[in-house]
């Protein structure tokens, strides 16, 4: 008997990823949606999660694909109603609110899953394994895309709490924290804010070296043409490029791992596992790096951004 | 036999607070200092902690009163050398680096104590107890002081990572997190940055209401005259003002608790307890609120600041 699941926030990511991933997973049936002004053909639609929770007590799972600034209220509502909850990344607007959700989920004995979809890209696990017995000499993240192409008209992303270029950049940080043999932490950050926006359009990060190895990252939202979602890693035994957001691993010029995009199917499979095991999965380390960058970072004002 | 302790960073807070507190505690003997360009009369002085650790293996404890931007390197050095470490507030420039120190201290089996001196102000415990069986209806923190008086010439506080007005404000947050019966988290923040500085001079915080009770804070660094370090609390059974940074509690107009300043003596007493018990104390909740405010906050540019 599949879990009856509701999807909240019917925007681009819901249509592109969540709906097909749920449709392809035998453990879940999409029973309803909640969205202020969007519907999915053939699925019962509610205007708010509060209405949905009251009208449909048989829906046991809720997946939240709303912007992070408003995710907390819905997540809390769903957990208080005893439902299992899955959160798009980033899991909230603040670290403290996600910690509060984690306590609430534990109290209620339900599953809370803070997802990081990029960790399930096809070559992330292979990269982690390849690194496990090597000494890193240098690691650089190059994460550049055209915000106009990838987030057309998404104004929430430019509003305080929307993270700006950290919205894609946190994907890189979720991969970084998954492949490194030990944790790192920031030493320096520069955040470039468009004069008319509340979140950064470009970011440079310098982590404390791992041993002697520099660990750096550059995020940029004004890249023209195809996106660059690459992590370059030099080691004592070969140089690797993890590219296409984690999909493809090239070692010393030879492609050694690749696969089709199964990120969101993997997330829903993991959600079903966590529910079956009666456990939670909330790793805040990518979001902590972002909070650290905002805390530590030097702010630079750049040209205004208009769509 | 008292612990032999070294004090690192001989600035205003070291002279005003740490040195007298160590002198007044029979569990510690101040054996050396490390500071780039300052000394304490009659105490062996080193130019760096690295030199000190190598020259004085009998010094078992290290207290760090350096600015947060440079605290990590020294803390790590001391922990790796197997010494017990006490950190001034805030315990570092980033959350992740303090988490790294905590792991290192656990590995080495030594004490790490991230201090919050304001939690030991004379009336904080009385306020927590008074609140325990009351329902809060409104709480407002008013934390205003003159940076020119309290931090004369401390340029590091205006540099990225120096926290700006959060440097005093985090004291208020350390008290808030100690007196509330349950955790809160930020909903909204406005950070005012002087046009020529990298940290905020004023901050307004709105937390998610506790039940229906608004929880708010205003930090301001341009207050003229005496400082206002006050927390106003309305409850269903009386209204309180915790004033003078936590020293004085007034309930319904009557002073009910007060005492002399024993904050730093209490910190060193606690450090000795932790060493004796072989444990650590690292509560990151005040710093997490600050990181959340930087992450979530809307930035406003205000008049340049000059000393």
UniProtKB/TrEMBL annotation, chains A, B:
Keywords: Oxidoreductase
Main EC class the enzyme belongs to: oxidoreductase
Domain (Gfo/Idh/MocA-like oxidoreductase N-terminal) ranges: 5-113
GO molecular function: galactose 1-dehydrogenase activity; nucleotide binding
Cited InterPro entries: Gfo/Idh/MocA-like_OxRdtase_N, Gfo/Idh/MocA_oxidrdct_glycsds, NAD(P)-bd_dom_sf
Protein EC: 1.1.1.48
Pfam families tied to this protein: GFO_IDH_MocA
Name of this chain's protein: Galactose 1-dehydrogenase Gal
